[in-house]
Amino acid sequence: MSPRPSRYPQFAIPLALLGFSIALVPPLVITIALRLRELDLTGAAADLGLILGVGAFFSLLANPLAGRFSDRTTSRLGMRKPWIFSGAAIGYAGIVLIAFAPSVPVVLIGWSIAQIGLNFALAALVAMLPDQIGPGRRGRTASFISLAQNVGGVAATFFVQLFPAGLGQYLVPSLIGTVLMVAVIAPVKDRVRPAGPREPFDLRSLFGSFVFNPRKYPDLGWAWLTRFFLTTTQFTATSYLTYFLIAQFGVSDEDAPTLVFQAILANAIGIVLVAPLLGWLSDRLRRRKLFVIISSVIAIAGLTVIALAPSVSVVFAGELVLGAGLGAFFAVELALIADVLPSAETAGKDLGVANLAQSLPQSLIPVAAPALIASFGYLGLFLGGAVFGVLGAISVTRVRKVR
């Protein structure tokens, strides 16, 4: 009789992704924006769009490559852990560079390094899901991951606002997240690939790291589009939140971190109220698509409330509703993608390509947002995000293999 699989990975993977979020969110949502206002007050909004866009481009490169490389890794540590550990170290080095940056171009370099390193770690962490968790537990594990990543956002912004402006604000929260990510994943018994002949890694394989054939695997293609559309909805509500509060409600730079923390907290409360129940129901009912459609409708309502908010308190209410919608989505979307993967042998690579659907909005929104805001204000930005929620609800209906 084979030994019963350990349940530790079911909790370790979400906890590691909690650490990942605590490491990533402070520069992404708050500290880069504030650092740019110190270095170039008049051009800070345009600088932010450029830096987030370039950083997201590097995440597009790093994520699928790390997934492909981890599929081929034959280390005695395992296939995934070497990439998690090295990625965490590289990512934090980039964040340190941002903290000490004397100019905007150095912030750009630091964020690019951080995105490369952290996406190395992210790709390997997500690839652990099909390695370690069977189909019958993927829904609830995906809901734990959703909770962890979004509670990570709350924890990160909470840590940031504990510190006065300066190095502590830039360095300590991300350090906490990096240490947590590495510490909880270290005891996991990683999947080990036997040493032996492997397919050569040539130029074709390199470019193949970034794609899959949607005609051959249409369910994965539609699941990819669903993630892309709803991640766009999510990122629309967070990428310019600091500047939205400053411009729309006259919030000071000193008060902005606290109010961003409160907004992210409201969002996370919505997720916590919804995600665990729906992840459990998704496994029990063997259904994924219904919950994605429900999430899209709720997220659209939340973004609309934020777009029309007459006060900061109404923004918080909109974030609460948006969080409930996103909680419904993130409770099942990773399980949905894992259920339609073509093969366990290429899981890291295929999940890396799926992760592009999370990274692309981070690249595209900063490019498009300044023009949208200049033409239509923040109303246009947020309502534009709501349109992508509609597209997400439509695309998930085309997935055939999953109910």
From TrEMBL:
<feature type="transmembrane region" description="Helical">
    <location>
        <begin position="170"/>
        <end position="188"/>
    </location>
</feature>
<keyword id="KW-0812">Transmembrane</keyword>
<dbReference type="GO" id="GO:0022857">
    <property type="term" value="F:transmembrane transporter activity"/>
</dbReference>
<dbReference type="Pfam" id="PF13347">
    <property type="entry name" value="MFS_2"/>
</dbReference>
<feature type="transmembrane region" description="Helical">
    <location>
        <begin position="108"/>
        <end position="129"/>
    </location>
</feature>
<feature type="transmembrane region" description="Helical">
    <location>
        <begin position="224"/>
        <end position="247"/>
    </location>
</feature>
<feature type="domain" description="Major facilitator superfamily (MFS) profile">
    <location>
        <begin position="7"/>
        <end position="403"/>
    </location>
</feature>
<dbReference type="InterPro" id="IPR020846">
    <property type="entry name" value="MFS_dom"/>
</dbReference>
<feature type="transmembrane region" description="Helical">
    <location>
        <begin position="12"/>
        <end position="35"/>
    </location>
</feature>
<dbReference type="GO" id="GO:0005886">
    <property type="term" value="C:plasma membrane"/>
</dbReference>
<dbReference type="InterPro" id="IPR036259">
    <property type="entry name" value="MFS_trans_sf"/>
</dbReference>
<keyword id="KW-0472">Membrane</keyword>
<feature type="transmembrane region" description="Helical">
    <location>
        <begin position="259"/>
        <end position="278"/>
    </location>
</feature>
<feature type="transmembrane region" description="Helical">
    <location>
        <begin position="83"/>
        <end position="102"/>
    </location>
</feature>
<keyword id="KW-1133">Transmembrane helix</keyword>
<feature type="transmembrane region" description="Helical">
    <location>
        <begin position="290"/>
        <end position="309"/>
    </location>
</feature>
<feature type="transmembrane region" description="Helical">
    <location>
        <begin position="379"/>
        <end position="399"/>
    </location>
</feature>
<feature type="transmembrane region" description="Helical">
    <location>
        <begin position="41"/>
        <end position="62"/>
    </location>
</feature>
<protein>
    <submittedName>
        <fullName>MFS family permease</fullName>
    </submittedName>
</protein>
<feature type="transmembrane region" description="Helical">
    <location>
        <begin position="141"/>
        <end position="164"/>
    </location>
</feature>
